[in-house]
Every structure is written in C-alpha cells, then in structure tokens.
Design goal:
The chain has 673 residues and is α+β, with helices and mostly antiparallel strands. It folds into three domains: 3-27 and 522-663, no CATH class; 118-369, Beta-lactamase; 421-518, Lipocalin, CATH 2.40.128. It is built from 17 helices and 21 strands. It has helices at residues 3-25, 45-51, 61-78, 124-137, 169-173, 197-203, 220-234, 238-250, 290-293, 299-310, 323-329, 394-406, 444-447, 523-553, 571-594, 606-633, 641-663, and strands spanning 83-90, 93-104, 109-110, 118-121, 187-188, 286-287, 295-297, 314-315, 318-319, 348-352, 355-363, 368-374, 379-385, 428-432, 450-454, 460-462, 475-479, 482-485, 491-496, 502-506, 513-516. An eight-stranded antiparallel β-sheet has the order 16-15-14-21-20-19-18-17, with no helix packed on it. A hairpin with a 2-residue loop joins strand 10 (348-352) and strand 11. The longest helix is centred in the last third of the chain and has 31 residues, at 523-553. The chain is globular.
Length: 673
C-alpha cells in the first residue's frame, strides 16, 4: 500500500470514528424541519403583558379591534405574510370582522373579510363529516359497518399480523383507520392535471399499518374515502352535495368546494404566497382528495357556519343537522387520557384556560387557518393567513393570547416533587404515527424522530420542542404517566403496552401520537451508520485517486509496489464505493438545494423513482461484489492485518448502506407515495 493511500485511509477512518462518537454522544433529537429565522421573533413578553392583564377584558368590538390591530400587523411583518382575515362572534353578534394586509400584492387589492375568499384546507373535513352525519340521520349510512359496502372498489386489507377488523366511518372520523401517509397528487396547481375523486383514491391507496380504532394517524386519505361515500350514497358529486345541503341553507354565498372556484366567484379568491415579497404566487392549490382540504370560503361565511353549529345545526330557520346529532359529533370518541383534549366525531378539542375550543385548523402551502367555536361562551373564532409564514407561530399566538386576554386564569398545575422511577421509562426515541412506512417517503421518518429524556431533576425533554418564545419546553410530572409544560398548558401522556412498557406518547393534538422506534430504526443510529459508511467509501475513493494521480503525474517513476501481504481493493469494491458516494451525495444535495420549495409529489416524479430504483439496484450489485471480496480475504494467507481491515470495512459499509436502502425504500415501490 502506498504512503499516500495509507494516509488517506488512516485520516478518513479517524474522522469517521470522531463523527460517530459525536453523533452518538449527543442526546439530541434529529431536526425535523427548518427552524424559524432568528429574525422571526415571537411577540414580546411586554406586548403580551399589555394585551393580557390579570383581569379579563370585556369582549366588545372596540377592545377586540385594539387587540387584533396590535397583533395581526405585527404577525404579518414578522412572519412575512401578505394578508389575513379575522372574525369573532359571540351570542350571534359579530364583534369583529376585519381584513389585514393584501389579498393581491400586484394589484394592491386589500383583504375584505366579507368577500375575499381564502383557502381553508383541512377545515374542509368538518363539512365532510357533517355531510356524513346528514346521510346517517336519513338511515343511508351506518357509522360502525365496513366502509367497503359503500364503495365501488375495495380498500387494501391490513396484514393479518395487524388486524382482521374492518375499517368503519367512525374510525375515519377519529383518524383511527390505520392508514399510512399518502401524498401523491395531494396538491396540484395545474387544473389540467386534476383527476376525479374516485381515481385519486384508487391510484393513491395507502397500506394499513395500525389496527382500526386503536392508534390515531391523521389521514387525508381516510377523509377522502368518506367524501366519496357521500358522493356514492347521495348520487351527487361531493362538491354539489355540500353546496346544496350546507352552503345554500346557511347562506354561505362565497363558499365552494369547486377547484378552482366557479366563474361567479373567480375574481374573489386571495392569492397565495410563500412570502409577502413574492410577486409570483403559489397558484391556486387544488387539494386531493377534495373532501379533506378543498374548501374556499370567507370569514363572514365561516361566521354563519359557526352560528349554525352553536344553534344545534340551525340558522335562520334552515336546519343542516339535528341537535342530538351535533351533540354526538361533539362527544369525545378517542382520548388517550381524560387529561388531554379528545378527538370527537370529525371535530377535535383545544383546551386553554379551561375553555374547550371545538373545531379544526387547516394548512396548504400558502394558506393557514383556524376555525373554532366555544359552546359555553357561545363564541366563534376564525383567522386565516394567505402566506406560508402563517403556519407555525401565528395561530397558536391567536388562540392563546385571545383566551388569556378575555378568559384569563390557567388551571393550576400541581407538579410532583419526585418522579417515580417507573415514569422515567418514558425515555427513548419516538416517531409520529402519521407517517409512510412502505413508500419512498419512509426515509423522512429518520428526520422526524423525537428523543425523550428525563434529567436528574425529573424534568422531561422532548427533542427540540419549543414554546412560542422559542424556549425549549420543560415538562414536569403532574400524575401517573402525565407530564405538563412547566410554563404552559401543553400536556403529554405515556401509553403503556401489556408488559407495562411505554410504547406511545399522546400529545395535545389528538389526531396523532408518537410511537417508540426500535434501536435499529433509531435515526441517530441509522444516520451515524450511513455517515461512517460514506466516510469509509470516501477513503476508498481518495486512495484510488491518489494512485491514479501518481500514475498520471509521476508516470516516469515506477508505481509503488505493495508491501508483502498487502492487496489493493479490486474493481468491484472501488466501483461500489464510487457509486454509493455519488448516489447518496447527489440525493442529499438535491433535497438540500430544494429546501422548503420542494413541491408535493406528482406522477411526474415516478420516472425519477424508477431511475432511482435502477441506480440503487446497481449499487446493491456492486455491494455484493465488495461483500464477497471481504469474505474471501479472510481465507487468503498470508495477509497484513490492515488489508483484512480494509476489505472488511468496505464490506461492512456496503452491507449497511444496502440494508438502509432496502429497509427505508430507496429501492422499492416507485408509483405510490
């Protein structure tokens, strides 16, 4: 072995060892999303104190306008949002309806809460579930029977190892159908590429990864099935059914599920932006399946919808649901603990200061919205933003600061002085139940994990979870397997299996939980193994380049002869090293360059997935040659130890990368994601 190649190997292996030690030694969760820019500061503590005195303010128009005038413009500037629309009602009286900023930056058209149509995304689900319950009232649907009897195609059965139970409409309503995530064609901006609701559901059918009724895994696909059942049973297109049976009776004249809106409303929608400085817009986002996210509406129309809900399903003499039906829809159906907000029938609850807000939120690329009613206070609260920055901070600020201002008084938390040892068993690594396991989305699970630890003071740390001030959340125990943010009201509950081991975590949002991952799927382990493997293969590339450089630049000198007992790597292992390195670096580089601008997957991606399968298949074949070389080297005598180590490390690196590629679906289904 030449001195240059020996140095390359030694230096690179040292770096690999240090990198693995660094990754394994730090008990931090892998980041799952870009953090907010340092300039994106939360609303100041002084401002919050000024807006939220100890005694609650009177809920009246002048005070509300002062509150929102102090908050929304600040949010628009800080979070780079073009415009927002707001509505607050109590006891059937509109206390505030106001637009902020611009609906169209180019034409300088301001937001008008009465006529400017915003895209409300998942708030659509409430209309789907009301449609289902209308048909259930008529005896046309049964919430607890196999949904296959209402479909003209069959949903894919779950593996017998998971469950033989059928999926029901009640399961779909509580997001406990057990489906993995499916996102192909979920958002389109070209109407010419739109496909029918039926085709969307057939072409993008996900696998089932949980038993029905047991584990919440928020599913747009499940809601899409329900909207198609409404279409099948009613005999009307879903969009028309909702228009005839909800929008028209309630006088919601600026609301539609048509994508894009009909000509009568075509000039009214707000543009959607990635930021307030964008001149090109995101475009009209066509959401699939329509019942899970296709609605377009205004603040004023959503006020009428909220009124109808608070009146037991009736408004101006027009009834969309019976009071007893709506009461059932607001009855908790799925709840990991009675100390956490429940999932009701399509609606979910959000708790703050003792208020139980019932409703839904919604997100597209550009639009981010919230819609809640509070039955005891007879309140309707609606806010929608038309830019990507409206997603993370603005909405929690609205619900928290609004409640703190007008209904102050957080419930007192009695923290345990000592944490029982049994509760410390919560420590581990967890991944969301809303995930894809069998598609090419699976590698994303490695970056979406949360590391949970309990320090010596009994404080629980959940990955990089932060509060609205940007501070890490510190959780303290308040009961058996129950933890609460020591400075807030968020809660976390540990769910145990039959052997008393913590298997999942329930959080404030009841539509998902976090499931413990086995050690071999731990993101830190897998990414450390991948990084170390790539460094080993990079050493192979450096050594090969060193020998090639010597042959080219020093061709008059004889090539260095290997020392006795030394064998240089053959062509197979060297090709495997080059191919793996180029393949993975290019994949990582592509996603790094795309960042947040990466559009949702469409069928146009499938050709690239086919090519990826071919590329990974070639890498696996070359890896097989490297692994065979590593095995054979141990049967050759005499050889230097460094030679055996070299071949073995390359074989192990290729084995690890091959396992990662197969297990995490770098090679696998290419026409379903």
């Amino acid at each position: 072995m030449s001195r240059v190649s020996s140095f390359a190997w030694s230096a690179t292996l040292l770096v690999a060892a240090l990198l693995v030690a660094e990754l394994v030694g730090h008990g931090q969760a892998v980041k799952t999303a870009p953090q907010a820019d340092v300039k994106t500061a939360p609303v100041s503590t002084a401002a919050v104190t000024a807006m939220n005195p100890a005694a609650g303010h009177s809920l009246e128009p002048a005070d509300l306008e002062a509150f929102f005038d102090g908050m929304i413009p600040l949010q628009l500037e800080r979070s780079d949002i073009a415009g927002a629309s707001v509505l607050v009602m109590q006891n059937d009286k509109v206390l505030l309806t106001k637009g902020y900023g611009l609906a169209d930056i180019k034409s300088k058209r301001p937001v008008d809460p009465a006529s400017t149509i915003f895209r409300l995304a998942s708030i659509s689900k409430l209309f789907t579930w009301i449609s289902v319950m209308q048909l259930e009232e008529q005896g046309k649907l049964n919430l607890d029977t196999d949904i296959n009897q209402y479909l003209d195609f069959q949903i894919r059965p779950a593996p017998h190892s998971i469950s033989d139970k059928p999926v029901t409409l009640r399961n779909l309503m509580t997001h406990t159908g057990g489906f993995e995530e499916s996102v192909t064609n979920i958002i389109l901006t070209d109407p010419r590429k739109a496909v029918s609701l039926r085709d969307v559901l057939i072409q993008n059918q996900p696998n089932r990864i949980f038993p029905p009724g047991q584990v919440p895994a928020y599913s747009n696909y499940g809601v899409g099935l329900a909207s198609y059942i409404v279409q099948r049973v009613s005999g009307q297109p879903f969009e028309q059914y909702v228009a005839d049976h909800i929008f028209t009776p309630l006088g919601m004249t600026h609301s539609t599920f048509a994508q894009p809106p009909p000509k009568a409303l075509a000039s009214l929608p707000s543009e959607g932006y990635r930021s307030s400085t964008d001149k090109p817009t995101v475009g009209f986002e066509i959401f699939n399946p329509v019942g899970a996210g296709g609605i377009s509406s205004t603040a004023s129309d959503m006020g009428r919808f909220g009124q109808a809900l608070l009146h037991g399903g009736e408004l101006d003499g027009k009834r969309i649901l019976r009071p007893e039906t709506l009461a059932r829809m607001w009855t908790p159906q799925f709840q990991a603990s009675d100390k956490l907000p429940p999932m009701c029938m399509g609606f979910y609850e959000t708790w703050w200061n003792g208020l139980r807000w019932i409703g839904h939120q919604g997100d597209l690329i550009a639009f981010h919205s919230l819609f809640y009613v509070e039955p005891k206070q007879n309140l309707v609260l609606f806010v929608s933003y038309n830019s990507a920055g409206g997603g993370d901070q603005p909405r929690p600020e609205i619900i928290h600061f609004f409640t703190d201002r007008y209904f102050p008084g957080a419930p007192k938390a009695d923290f345990l002085k000592t944490v029982p040892d049994e509760m410390k068993g919560i420590a581990g690594t967890y991944v969301s139940t809303r995930r894809a396991d069998s598609t090419k989305l699976a590698p994303g699970n490695l970056f979406g994990q949360r590391a949970v630890s309990v320090d010596k003071d009994g404080v629980l740390h959940l990955g990089e979870a932060k509060d609205l001030r940007g501070h890490p959340i510190k959780w303290k125990a308040i009961g058996k397997d129950l933890w609460q943010d020591q400075d807030g009201q968020a809660r976390l509950f540990a769910i145990r299996d039959a052997s008393n081991k913590v298997m999942r975590l329930a959080v404030n949002f009841p539509g998902v939980q976090f499931q413990r991952v086995p050690w071999y799927e731990n993101g830190r382990f897998v990414l450390s193994a991948a990084a170390a493997s790539l460094l080993v293969l990079f050493a192979v590339i450096l050594a090969s380049m060193a020998r090639a450089g010597h042959s080219f630049f020093l061709r008059r000198r004889p090539p260095p002869a290997p020392e006795p007992g030394t064998i240089w790597l053959g062509l197979g292992p060297r090709l495997a090293a080059c191919w793996w390195f180029l393949l993975l670096v290019n994949i990582g580089g592509y996603f790094a360059l795309q960042g947040d601008d990466l559009p949702p997957p469409t069928p146009e991606w499938f050709i690239w997935f086919d090519l990826l399968n071919i590329a990974v298949g070639l890498a696996l074949f070359l890896s097989l040659l490297a692994i065979i070389s590593a095995i054979r080297i141990w049967f050759q005598q005499p050889l230097r130890t460094i030679t055996r180590v070299k071949f073995t490390l390359v074989g192990i690196a290729c084995t690890l990368l091959s396992w990662i590629a197969i297990h995490w679906n770098l090679i696998g289904p290419s026409h379903r994601i």
